[in-house]
Amino acid sequence: MKLEKSVFIATSLDGYIARGDGNLDWLDKANLSVPEGEDCGYVSFMSTVDVLVMGRNTFEKVLSFGGWPYEKKVIVLSSNNLEIPENLKKRVYSSAETPEELCNRLAADGIKRIYVDGGSVIQSFLAGGLITDITITVIPVLIGSGISLFGNTVKDIELEHISTKSYEFGFVQNKYVVKR
Amino acid sequence: MKLEKSVFIATSLDGYIARGDGNLDWLDKANLSVPEGEDCGYVSFMSTVDVLVMGRNTFEKVLSFGGWPYEKKVIVLSSNNLEIPENLKKRVYSSAETPEELCNRLAADGIKRIYVDGGSVIQSFLAGGLITDITITVIPVLIGSGISLFGNTVKDIELEHISTKSYEFGFVQNKYVVKR
Q: A171 vs B160: CB contact, 8 Å cut-off?
């Protein structure tokens, strides 16, 4: 029973997933040049995912957009008590498990693939050797500072390049598998 | 008389051009998987370059490799006095000019394209709006910390994606032009 732990995310060319305060204005601006109906593989990727795992910051950011975009089960990793809106309580759960504990539980439950989202959660999964594959869509802009996708890894992490797709509107999507 | 100011560089997937101490062991290791004779477009790029511009750190790093790899004229930007080995004095010059002063002088001299190399020089050219195009070869490894290619840019810098080439050994080379 193998659990795939996947990242699917956009970064600026200088490797940030958001400005320091979480602002995505640069991404929203870039998205204006994306033709209607083009989702850069998001729906296709999402269709392979059983459960989303994110941190508190990402959860609160998504909530701030108004409305809730996910049909699938979401687990929010948080060591502190998390307030989950009443209407989401059947789809959103919080957990204080470590990434490893969570993965073991989900694998035992027969879950096949989780979508790991948000800078600090991605980084803690990476540090634990728990990420299987990473799809990064690189946006052609430098924003200079912000929340870095990878942060400081303690040791080198080698990846295998799987595929690259470049879009006519300037995004480049790369898929890598983390080497064991 | 238009002077092109070009970057041609390799980075780790997390955006570093070297470890903090300048070490390129991760790149040397990755290069072991590159077939003999494959230079990822380096010779072709170099054939379009008239002058190389680099900083003191890059100059000293190149010197430390032993031998001197460049036939073309090299200008080392350094505010301090630079010691240039006797055998290089006909090809290597130091300058305390600002990037803008240097570009104006070279353009007036009829130079068509310079190769801007090294983290801090690239960053000061970028900050001055002086980079024309950037070719980045992304190596499939995370090294976690080091000398960042882009550093902190003061404002957003938008780029136009020109081309992407992925190599079977896992490198992905992207070319961008800086938007004016």
A: no
